[in-house]
Specification:
Helix 5 crosses helix 6. Strand 2, helix 2 and strand 3 form a beta-alpha-beta unit. By secondary structure, the protein is α/β, with parallel strands linked by helices. The longest helix is centred in the first third of the chain and has 14 residues. It folds into 2 domains: 135 residues, Periplasmic binding protein-like II (D-Maltodextrin-Binding Protein, domain 2); 141 residues, 3-Layer(aba) Sandwich (D-Maltodextrin-Binding Protein, domain 2), CATH 3.40.190. The strands form 2 sheets. Strands 1, 2, 3, 4, 5, 7, 8, 9, 10, 12 and 13 form an 11-stranded mixed sheet that branches. The chain has a two-stranded parallel ribbon with strand order 6-11.
């Protein structure tokens, strides 16, 4: 893969610039590693990148968004070093997915919303039939079709017969007239200004915005209890709205030495403190 090399020339000149001054210029080569994909993974990857760059000043890491599908397609086309997908990615068509960690999908509302808990049936009826939740939540916010968060949500929300939105209702759900957003950030912005709306976002993103948003407790299809959206409940499986955060690798070419170094770091025990701090659920030792 072609990598972009940025050469920074630093010159110190006092008084009149001379050829001798240019001869003393120092050249530092910096290798840029490019990631692209899931907007839900942006904050996590930027935090990991910042820590890695501090220890490796010869490396710069660019985290580009676009959605999980973009992360996969960019990896196939060789447009990144590796991709980011907030869903499982099977090995096929020149790519494979490796789980980095787990993430909950929070049913997020404005902190001033009167609703605190919700059932699967209530969520399904709002998103599919436009039925208000507890006569309070009247607006549903959805993500664009390339979103891994949308796919994870659609897999978990079911009708009364257990048929999930992804398998049975994806076409009508996508054209239901709800406000479709292209990033986690835009969903958050809408929720911050509307107490009658609900949207689905990464649990890590929710935890970074608790001053303005809250997560609804969720009673999943067939469950007996409402479960709080916490990292502990994601790990023990009781909070069923969850999905993997996945690194997308090419199966047709190897990572560059620089990209391999960053990949090894994010998969290491050393990186788990940052993964946990960002509100994600470490599965270290389970993703080999």
């Amino acid at each position: 893969m072609k990598r972009r090399i940025l050469t920074f020339v630093i010159c110190l000149a006092i008084g009149i610039v001379s050829m001798g001054a240019f001869a003393g210029c120092a050249k530092d080569e910096v290798t840029v590693i490019t990631l692209s994909g899931s907007t839900s993974m942006t904050d996590l990857m930027e935090a990991l990148a910042a820590e890695y760059e501090d220890a490796h000043p010869e490396v710069r890491i660019e985290v580009n968004q676009g959605g999980s599908s973009v992360g996969i397609s960019d990896t196939k086309a060789g447009l990144n070093d590796f991709g980011l997908a907030s869903k499982a990615v099977p090995e096929a068509d020149g790519v494979k997915g490796v789980q980095l960690c787990l993430d909950g999908i929070a049913l997020a509302v404005n902190k001033n919303c009167a609703v605190n808990e919700v059932t699967n049936d209530e969520v399904f009826d709002l998103y599919m039939n436009r039925t208000p939740i507890q006569n309070t939540i009247t607006t549903a916010i959805i993500r664009e079709g390339s979103s891994g968060t949308r796919e994870g949500f659609n897999e978990k929300i079911k009708d009364a017969d257990g048929k999930d939105i992804k398998s049975e209702y994806s076409n009508s759900y996508g054209t239901a007239g709800w406000n479709e957003q292209s990033s986690t950030g835009s969903v958050i912005a809408l929720l911050q200004s509307n107490t009658a709306a609900v949207g689905y976002i990464s649990l890590g993103s929710l935890l970074a915005n608790t001053s303005t948003l809250k997560a609804l407790k969720f009673k999943a299809y067939g469950a007996d209890e409402y479960v709080e959206a916490t990292t502990q409940n994601v790990l023990n499986g009781s909070y069923q709205l969850q999905r993997p955060f996945t690194i997308v690798l090419s199966t047709t070419h190897e990572l560059s030495p620089a990209a391999q170094g960053f990949y090894d770091y994010i998969m290491s025990e050393e990186a788990q403190a940052i993964i946990t701090k960002e509100g994600c659920v470490s599965t270290y030792g389970q993703n080999k």
